[in-house]
Amino acid sequence: MTSPRRTFAIISHPDAGKTTLTEKLLYVGGAIHLAGEVKARGANRRARSDWMKIEQQRGISVTSSVMTFEKDGVTFNLLDTPGHEDFSEDTYRTLTAVDSAVMVIDAARGIESQTRKLFEVCRLRSVPIITFVNKVDREGRSAFELLDEIADVLALDVAPMTWPVGMGGTFEGVLDLKRWSISRPEGDSRTFQGKVDAEPILPDEVREEVELAQAGYAEFDAEAYRNGDLTPVYFGSALKDFGPAELIAALAQYAPPPRAQPAEPAPIGPEEKEVTGFVFKVQANMDPQHRDRIAFMRLCSGTFKRGMKLTPTGHGKPIAVHSPILFFAQDREIADEAYPGDIIGIPNHGTLRVGDTLSERAAVRFTGLPNFAPEILRRVALKDPTKTKQLRKALDDMAEEGVTQVFYPEIGSNWIIGVVGQLQLDVLISRLEAEYKVAAGLEPAPFETARWISSDDAAALKEFVEINRSALAKDRDGNPVFLAKSAWEVGYVADRYPKVKFAATRER
Predict the structure, then answer these.
(1) What does DSSP say about strands 100-106 and 5-12: parallel, antiparallel, or unpaired?
(2) Which of 170, 221, 345, 384 has its CA 20 to 30 A from that of 108?
(3) By residue range, what is the domain housing residue 501?
C-alpha cells in the first residue's frame, strides 16, 4: 500500500516565478481562496509564503517555508525554498527533507546558474524532478530549444507532457499530449478559467511541432523518473493559471511516496514502527508577538502521536512534544498525529538544532546535513555596548537557524560572523533590529574564509593550535576553526601541516 503523502520542494533561479507557482498550487489545492502575486498591490495580497518583513520589501523568499494541503485524498507537503543563491545553504538543507522536487524554469531564460546548482543537490540524493516551464504566455525561447537545453545541461531524458500552442502574442493555450485537449485562455486578462477544448484543431505549425516532439523525445517512464534519470516537462503560466492543476495531478500520480532516509547504522524506511525524524531547519520569531523558535522536523518512520517523548541525538534528554504544529505558511494548527513524510514544527527553546535526529530510542542518526564554510566573514560592532547579552542571544539564535555561523576568536573579543552570500548580511542586520532591537554594524574582518580543523594525531593538532592561536576560533559547538586570510593561505597552511585536516563542510 503506498502512502497518500507527497513531500516535495519547489526549486528555481530567482524570478522564475516560483513563489507565484506555490501560491497557485495552494489555490488549486483549495488551501487559499485568493492567490497573492508577488507583484500585487497592498499588504493583503502579498504572497502567502513570504511573511518576513525583508521578504515583502524585496519580493524574494529568504527562508524556506512549509505548507500542507490536501486534495483528492492525497496530503501534499510543499516546501518553498529561497531561490536567491545567497541562501542556498537553507535550500540545500530543505532538499534533504523532500522526496521529489518541481524545478521551475523561465521560458525566456532557460536554465540559469542557480537552477543548475540546486539540480546538482537533487542529483546527489537522487531526488526525482518534474520540470515546469513557466511564463509561456510571454515571448520566450522555442519549446524545442528549452527541452534540448534541459537534456544537455542536466544530462536528463526529457518527456514533454504538455505543449504550448503559440507563445507570447500568439499564445492560444496549452495542449495536454495525453488527453489531446487544449486549455484555452479567456477574457481580457487571458487567464485559464476552465475552458477546455476537447477536440482541438491545431494550427499546422503547432501540429508539426507536436509530431516532431513525440517522435524525438522519450516517452514518459515512471520508473526512470523515480530513479532521477528522466524528467516530465509541463509548459504553462503560473500567473495565468495554466499548469498548476496538471502539476498537482502529476505529483499525486507519479511522485514517490516517502522514501527511506540515509542514516547510521542503517537507512530507515517509512514502514518501520519506531518514530524517527530529523530537524532540517530551525526558524526563530515566526510569530512577532511571541519570541518563538520552531524546529521543523521531517518524520521518517512510525506514527507520531501528540505528547510523545522523543530523544534528540545531541544531548540525550527525552523531550515531550505537547504541541506539534502543522503549517500553512504563517497559519498553523496543532497536529494530533503525523505520518512518515509529514513536516511538523516542534516549539523549541534552544534545545533542538539543525541536523538533530529525534527518535523513541536514541540509537539512530540521520546523515547528510552539511554545514558549509562561509565565503564572507565580518566582525559585529555594537552601537550600544550595554546590549552585548542581547547580541549574543540573537547571533546564537540565527546560527541555530543556519542563517549565519558565529565564530568566537581565541584572542580578541569581537565575534566574527560568517555567511555564504552578501544578502544574508542584510537580512542579519535587518532582523537584529526588527526582532531583537539591537542596533549593530558590520566591520571588515581580517579573514576571508574558515575551515574546520581536526587530526588523528593529537600532538600535531596541539602544535598547530599553539603556533596559529591568533587565527583560531571556536564555532558555537566548540569545534576548532582556522580563520584564513585567503584561499591561498588555506592551501599553504595545509601543505605545511599534512597531519591536520582542513574541512570546508562539516556534517551537522
Answers:
(1) parallel
(2) 221
(3) 370-507
